[in-house]
Amino acid sequence: MVVKAQLLARDRLSRRVSMADLVVAGGVVVFPEWGPLRVDLRASGGRVVEVGERLSPRGGEAVLDAAGRHVFPGFIDPHVHLGNANPFADDVATETRAAAVGGVTTLLTYVKVLRHRQGQVSYHEVLPEVTRAIGELASIDVGLHLALSTSQHIDEISQYQRLGINSFKFYMGYRDDPRALRRGSVGVDDGFILQAMRAIAAAGGGATALVHCENEDIARSLVARIPDPARATWADWAGTRPGLIEVEAIQRAGLLAREAGVPLYVVHLSSCEGLAAAREARTRASAPVHVEVSTHHLLLTSDRAAACEPPGLAKVSPPIREQASVDALWQAVADGTVDTVGSDHVAMAWERKQGSALEADPGFAALDAFAPLVLTEACRRRVPLERVARVCAGNSARIFRLRGKGTLAPGSDADLIVVNLDAPGRLDAARNQSSSRFSPYDGVPVTAQVEVTVLRGEVIARAGRVVAERRGRALHGAAAPA
Ligand SMILES: [Zn+2]
Hints:
With about 475 residues, the protein is α/β, with parallel strands linked by helices. About 35% of the residues lie in helices and about 20% in strands. The chain has 17 helices and 22 strands. The strands form four sheets. A nine-stranded parallel β-sheet has the order 15-14-13-12-11-10-9-8-16. The chain has a seven-stranded mixed β-sheet with strand order 3-2-7-17-20-21-22, with helices on one face. The protein binds zinc ion (ZN). The site of zinc ion (ZN) has 3 residues, from strand 8.
């Protein structure tokens, strides 16, 4: 009986290994650390085992022909909201498929306790079901950020870290906001944030404090001046969230993080004024200050957002900005000021976008087109490809301590995408793998297409279709405690 079990286990193991043995041949591999190199990759057992010129396949190894194509590390999306509007498990199943076709092989999702329980209980109560859903349903690898909102959460930071969770989120806005509570977002005050930041620093292990930087008091005072909320346009709503409210909040978060001595990660920085504030915070910081920008702040302008129907379609906080900020953010990607690019992806039903721009829910789906959008615009603006590999893969792996991720150097996970950078087409939201079949990017022309997505050596998506699903893992269980 024992022997039979061992044989079965060995059989399973050998099948898994042979599925994952392949040579990626003939392409230009874009390494975050070394830039583009015309080399082949050999993957075995789910890992990159060899990088070299003209590798010949050995017996049993499949060949992935990448001639005329670029090969990037699988993109890592550090900012995803699974379970924000739909049940968590449903989003894990559908949205990780969207990620796979969009060139993303690892995503980090926010876990918000109120989306799982009526009250703000310990994350120990909800993590088992979160982990199970990922293990059973995810088509790519998934890591977690926890949104902290109670003193119990603070007390348990080092326990969460021992589970391999290295990032904790704070909402400066959304205090006592019933609509935000529906999305599970609990605003916390500066006293709470400082206390939690000190606890993160005291726990050691290099965890990061993620802060949504917007001054809600100013935003609310501007909302109160909208004459007819039921008819608010996108521009009316966006006018309540000027760059000033981001600047003030970044300055405050920077001060608190410096005081606590904790790495600060500014999520979805959106404006040129915000960039200046983040650069300034860096000059005074006692620990790293990381900057994340969102795909929509890089790809959409206020003109396009204002033209969307219904008026809340492109609503997201902070709002889509004017062209000058879009240009400044790209410049900051190119010069290294920006560390990471995230999608801020939220899948939701079309009904939630109805009504005035003030009434519609913020957020929209973006994972299906993550790599095509970023690569198309990066190429148009002549941003070096290794810079893209850093902000879309390498830096997130480093900041969030995702072992084996974010590069294609020997020893890393064989997570990669084969991309055609000269394949003109148009995005079609009706073909989304996401449960959201609408998007402010619908109809946008792209020149980059993800042809193949590989997770740990196995092809999981090809030409916009998922060909192997539910191969993902929960990273927090696998990560070693710091
Ligand atoms: Zn977000």
